[in-house]
Amino acid sequence: MNSSDRKFENELCKVGVLRLFLCSPIHFKRSFSLYLFGIFCLSLLTLLALLQLFRRFVFFVGFGQVPCAEMKLSTLLGNEEDCQGLQHRLWRLVPQQTQDIIATGILLIFLPLWYFLHFFVILPTWYPAFGEAWVIRAVPYAFFIFNIYINWSFMVYHGPNGRNTVLPNVVTPGFKFCHHCQTNAPPRSHHCPVCNVCILKRDHHNSFGGVCVGHFNHRYFIAAILHFWLISLIFLSYSISFVSLQLEGGITVGRLWQIFIPHVAFAFRYF
Prior knowledge:
This protein has helices at residues 3-12, 18-22, 31-63, 68-71, 74-77, 80-93, 98-122, 132-158, 218-246, 253-260, 262-267; strands at residues 176-178, 183-185, 189-192, 197-200, 204-206, 211-213. It is mainly α. This is Palmitoyltransferase.
């Protein structure tokens, strides 16, 4: 390494995270390339997660309402009964109730727009987009968002009762008879009026996906909520700072009501 290259490297050592890669004793020249490769891999994983979420909905739109004989899937799946079972499982993944459709639409449409706003409008207020400081913060935030959607997809896919939509109709000590779904339900199971089926260890009916949270998908719900809480707390701090910069004089107690009820402030011409 000549003197000019060494001088250039010493200048880079003064810049943020590059010190970790270029100023180590071993002078690992490919460290920064590996760093960029890691960013690319995380972005690719996030894209694959979004594709996994929309895959079953797109498949249902293409095949779900078409008769099984015209789908030409019976040959692939072995017989027509298997194909009808596939249609039933695909139909189960699509929200049926109005509140479930609205909540799922918020999760799949408006929430990504909210994340996009923070990544490319609010965050660049302090850190230029795709700059080093921006990337250092955007990568872990994208990882949190990836975990939200991948755990949500597992929660919807597995369901509270596993792969079985109907509990086994067997007489077992400790079981109770459910008069709503006319079947014997295991202990600690409760009937969901929305899903119209008894749920193992039912916690609640989650409208964000149109599925109950129960025995087999409770862990995915907890993981999704945990990551959602973390990313919301981080973005809330950025949003407060962003609003404070946009308002003349910053955020004061007298202006809090204008922020939380802006339509009232607009009606009284405070804006």
